[in-house]
Amino acid sequence: xxxxxxxxxxxxxxxxxxxxxxxxxxxxxxxxxxxxxxxxxxxxxxxxxxxxxxxxxxxxxxxxxxxxxxxxxxxxxxxxxxxxxxxxxxxxxxxxxxxxxxxxxxxxxxxxxxxxxxxxxxxxxxxxxxxxxxxxxxxxxxxxxxxxxxxxxxxxxxxxxxxxxxxxxxxxxxxxxxxxxxxxxxxxxxxxxxxxxxxxxxxxxxxxxxxxxxxxxxxxxxxxxxxxxxxxxxxxxxxxxxxxxxxxxxxxxxxxxxxxxxxxxxxxxxxxxxxxxxxxxxxxxxxxxxxxxxxxxx
Length: 298
What we know:
The protein is of the alpha/beta class. Helices cover 46% and strands 12% of the residues.
């Protein structure tokens, strides 16, 4: 099922057992919850999915498992985050064979490439596959951004179709739409800027707290699509303290705690991540419990 690059695309967390092995039964439950809530696609093994701690074989195992579970109901998107181009190309081919419907592609990991190097990286990956590609533009976290000029060249490649926009500048949505219209689908990649981005013309939202609160996330998108911004804003205001858990270095621990409290997952992370210490844990759980207590009726 090819992605339309519109709507809500959860960046799924990767569930682990207490011994740090993959927890596939919990993953199955998570997938069903997201699909039932109306999400439009699933993204596997992103930053929130602890990609840096997963082996290439584990990522393909996850993909194969989820593709089988989803059975064509929504597109399954695989994240590509490698340090070496040869590894990225090999992984892209493996993802295709394992049934991925699309790819989310990050810039080179560990090395802060310049504009020419980044363009060559994305171009090589896009030419390697016929799978549709969501570029990830996150200069805040990765120190590498994509300019309008770079995108003009990359969009000559048919497989490049969308961008996850995480510059923290919502006017970038307007710049991209002015430059490319619907040739480039724009998905907000920052939870705390989602409604603003949708109001400015973003096509969707790659979401984090959706792992714990899928119904509310989908409701905001649907209300925005129907122009009912007052109702969307009401949910968004309630959601904001929770959404801010997504813009912290320990977002994985925070969001997994929210999942556990909401009955949507477990809190276990994989090393080098560690459970929160007592004071930080209390602070995060206070935010989560207050959000649950005030949860709006949809």
